[in-house]
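anyone else get weird line breaks when pasting these?? whatever heres mine. first is seq + tokens for prot A
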Amino acid sequence: MIDDANALELFRFADPVQSVTLQVACDAPMVAGEDRYYAAEIAVESDFINGTVGLHISDADLDEWGQCLAALEADEGAEWPPGSRSAWLSVVPEDPLEVTVHDSPSTQIAVQIPVDVPTGWLEENRLRLERVRKAIAKR
């Protein structure tokens, strides 16, 4: 579990019925060589299912998320974070947006959530990314 006091949302795909969000703990990164990894948690909430899955993300993963947002703006799909080290998600820009959260390699369970995102969702997620980058840069 992430302490909400030290966490920021990196993304939010939400409508009145369901949502998929990711919070990043912007304090106390794990250091592995030159890389810093931050604890994060993907949360799925709906009337049908609620759950969370943890992962760790790096500065490079944040850059990759920025590229995913550009791909979604171009009506291309996105998978993030790259590699198979932890949980990940895929996003298909259809109407409604299809977000699939994959808990691999742990349980190998995947949950697909259709989300009727509101106008402006892409720009809001870009602003969230910038807030996380600024918070991490202060460390």
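and prot B, same format (seq, then tokens)
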Amino acid sequence: MLKTRLMSLDDQAHEHAHDHHQLVMSLSGRAEFEVNGRGGEVCRMRACLVPGDAGHQFAGVGENRMLILDLNEQGTSAEDLELLGRLFEAPRYPALDADFQNLLSYAGAELARYGSDPMLARSLGGILLRALYLRLFGEPGKRPAGSLDLGRLDGYILENLSRRISVAELAQVTCLSPSHFHAQFKDSVGLTPHQYLLKTRLDRAARMLRESEHPLVRIAEECGFSSQSALTTAMRRYLGLTPKRLRDAH
């Protein structure tokens, strides 16, 4: 069974479990999830994979629109069973690259227009599921030959987050040319270095808004945004809400 649906999540905390797997993606806005004790958020840049039978809590944050896939193993081929087993072996919050976000937007628009057509809904859901699987695990025999030391890169980024960080600078950390680094980074992470830097800055800003009383101008500065308005614009575009609304929600 593969069921694809659109819905908005209210801001009340809900808790339940069900016997089917679930993939939750955001068309707009965001929601907070906790699956088997592992917390995370769903936004334009991140999805949530909920394994079947996993207890989970969730709540929308402000206005949001989610695309949700419900999946179980009934009548599923052996190949698809392997896909589901790998995707849902544990709760996870995979990052979504720009190409996947475009695919997601297209699927959302088609479902909003022709959602009553079950064949279309199943087909779109299957495409999204397969596209996410390939980003996480790659095609057999086509995985990148090399690998980046992402832990070292993350450490460098966090130490220098308050200032501008160039792709050439990150490439130097890994002893690669900028073009080689850019290609290898996207193959390994599924995001360009620029997208990954923006996601890291937004993650840090969101955490500071939730956990501190620092003024917005200081948060923007510490997270590497050129101004308070630049932070507000980025949060509204990628998370679907302003810093004030995020802070008020907590």
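btw re prot B: Residues 140-145 have pLDDT under 50 and may be disordered. The beta strands are 2-7, 14-16, 21-35, 38-42, 48-50, 56-71.
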